[in-house]
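Student: I would love a firmer grasp of how sequence relates to backbone shape in proteins. I am handing you a single protein, as its sequence and its fold in token form. I am told such tokens are a discrete way to write the fold. I hope you can help me see how the letters and the tokens relate. Take your time, and here it is.
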Amino acid sequence: MRLVKRIASTLILFTLAGCSKQPSDIAVEYQQRLASVTDIEVVLPAPLYNPEVQKVPLPTSELTISMLDIATAGHCKVTNLIAAQNNQLGKVSYPSERLKYTILFIQQAPHCIQHPNTSDELKQTFTQAIQEKKQQLPLYFLHMMTFERELASLSLLIAEEVPLESPAAHSNMLEAVNELAELAIHLDTPENLNPVTLTPALKVLSQRFISSLVTSVRKQAQLNNATTRQLKQLRLRDDICKSGGNKKQAKIISNIFNKYYLSVLQPYQAVLSRSMEELIAAWQPIHLLYQNNNVADPLTLQQHLDNLKDSAKAHVKWWQKFYELCEIPPV
């Protein structure tokens, strides 16, 4: 029997959710209501843990450019960049700023090499530095991904879940991820990169919508699985759906399913799935950069999405069996 999806009205959503309830609270209430009309206990979901983030260290270099070289190359724009970077030594230097510096160095140093007033020694040093920094650029990017506060915390569980209503932050998040992905795609041609877009993107990502989305998806999957395990304890054929028996209890259970899962949780999980699919598509260049450098992507977005979809399928499959045995309509 095919279950019909019902998109909840705004009234139903807010009646169930209230002002302070999070979607996982509704899923827990769904479990509790099912338990209250049956002789089974609530099955607690498996605990969730934060993933371990594989840290990528800051690339190192044996090349040095002396202050004297900088002083004698005042005709080169890149010397101002180097001087500003040297002034940061001993101070807090964000990984994103190091990445921006590396990109700008690669872009500006060739002009100094081509200038007739640049010494041969400095030309050679700059040439070697450009080559080295180009090779290290993916590591600078991954160092940022695993050490920059806004990025290193993306995979961590947080208290705030994605709300039932469509969040306005979603489109802003995708734009910010696209900016990061654009950098990741063109790391092999850094001459064409615009590192200025990095800081605004990080500001958007600091709002933690990705963390909220991942948290919500993981919680909903675990709660789906727990509720399905709980329902599997029911004796359908010999009790609730017994042939010729009173179907009153079955209808009450069905009403709970309609009120909580079909009307609220299923549409909500569909929204989460669509958001994840869009995020996965935008995140793909970054994920590939992790893979190509043998670094584990801590977000594991596809795995979380698959877990949510599998848990929803298993849950609906149980209800299909319920309606077949009880011979009552789902709505």
About this structure: Residues 217 and 272 are 7 Å apart (CA to CA). The chain has a mean pLDDT of 90.
